[in-house]
Request: fold
Amino acid sequence: MVDTVLLSSLIGFAFIGSITPGPNNLMVMASAAAFGWRRAVPHMLGIMFGFGIMLALVTSGLGALILEVPVLLDVVKFGGAAWLLWLAFKMARGALQPSDPTAPDQPSSKARPLTMLEAMLFQWVNPKGWAMALACAGAYVELAPSVITRAALIALVFMAMTPFANGTWMAAGEAMHRLFTGPRAGKIFGLGMAFLIAATAVMIVLGPSGLP
Reply:
């Protein structure tokens, strides 16, 4: 039996947590600003499925296991930060490449948004994502008696919020994409996305113990 009061609370928490500023929303907005709304859709889908899978696993007990084993936490923390810095370097280098003269509205032939897989992997090193996942694991333990049902409900509620929440930020990015056209604007937005990724990596390394 699902606790409808806790379910209503979960829906509100998912809405607020999904639409407020964070690495995912800022990066997907920068992606839409640099490459347009359509090319940012795989990024958004990666967030939706990646965070949904992460939530299901964390609320099923994986989060507690990682937090209890310092070595696993270090692997997630420092390995993820290193991957993010490498990804930021690739994006910055792509944004700084000479523009394709046959496509004047594109920032660079080598610059690109995050792929769906990259966005899915990013969820495991996203500090805000970890904070929300661990909060859900503790606050909604009585949502349903079955661990599987509880994990599935939490994941599905957040996944349902993703298109609306990320879509709102993508719409803002698309507006900037249409307003500021040309190779120079595209390079600036591409470098902005690389900076956000690098800043997230630094925040993970320099933050307090534990990813949240």
User: Anything to note?
Assistant: The chain has eight helices and no strands. Residues 4-206 form one domain. Helices lie at 4-19, 23-35, 37-68, 70-95, 116-122, 127-139, 147-179, 183-206. The radius of gyration is 18 Å.
